[in-house]
Design brief:
The protein is of the alpha+beta class and about 200 residues long. It has two domains: about 1-25 and about 180-204; about 30-175, Immunoglobulin-like. It is about 35% helix and about 25% strand. The strands form two sheets. A four-stranded antiparallel beta sheet has the order 1-3-6-5, with no helix packed on it. Strands 2-8-7-4 form a four-stranded mixed beta sheet. Helix 1 packs antiparallel against helix 3. The longest helix has 26 residues, at about 180-204. The protein is rod-shaped and about 85 Å long. It starts with a helix and ends with a helix.
Length: about 200
């Protein structure tokens, strides 16, 4: 009987170790802070957007940061840089005062893309000039059911948009859901209990 108790205890400890290693790895990245932050009212235009997450961001081509001004113009310009948990996107000089919307989409540590919108207000006009045309890469806040940070990259056509959608699908399929780990662990535990009971009966 003592051997059975020892075996079951060992299996339980192994199960906890598997879950402890699986659950943090399968969690999506969470935004910890941003600059500008949600609801900021700035009298000086920022020159970049800095996003900080709780886990490292995968450095991939699907990472996007778009900044849309009061009149629909795009103000993000340049390459999105990833440094561990920090994502930085340069901005061209902002122009009109009013509300600006930051829309981001990044590849989290578990292989799934995460996205969100951040709003801030420029209270004094900046030196930049609007292009006069809405940006095709900016989040489409008027499209029903569409994630505001899922828009295509600047200058993209229909084919490139489809490629981005396909990349996002591939990213979604690369992560392992938590329920898979839980199910596998439960099967191992049940199998261990069956073996332990059979061993106990054979000893009796």
């Amino acid at each position: 009987m003592r051997k059975i108790v020892t075996l079951v205890t060992t299996l339980a400890v192994a199960l906890l170790a598997v879950l402890a290693g699986a659950l943090p790895a399968s969690a999506h990245n969470v935004l910890v802070s941003s600059n500008p932050a949600e609801g900021d009212e700035l009298d000086t235009a920022p020159t970049e957007v800095v996003l900080t997450f709780d886990q490292p961001v995968q450095d991939a081509d699907v990472n996007e940061v778009a900044v849309t001004g009061p009149h629909g113009d795009a103000w993000a310009e340049g390459t999105v840089e990833v440094d561990g948990t920090t994502v930085t996107a340069p901005l061209r000089p902002l122009g009109p005062e009013g509300e600006y919307v930051i829309g981001y989409r990044v590849l989290s540590a578990d292989g799934h893309p995460v996205s969100k919108e951040i709003r801030f207000t420029l209270t004094s006009p900046g030196p930049g000039e609007a292009s006069g045309a809405p940006d095709s890469a900016a989040p489409d806040r008027g499209a029903a059911g569409q994630d505001p940070a899922q828009a295509g990259q600047p200058g993209g056509d229909a084919d490139s948009d489809q490629g981005n959608d396909q990349a996002a699908t591939d990213d979604d399929s690369s992560g392992v859901p938590v329920w898979v780990w839980l199910g596998g662990a439960a099967v191992l535990l049940v199998a261990g209990l069956v073996v332990a009971l059979r061993m106990g009966r054979s000893q009796d």
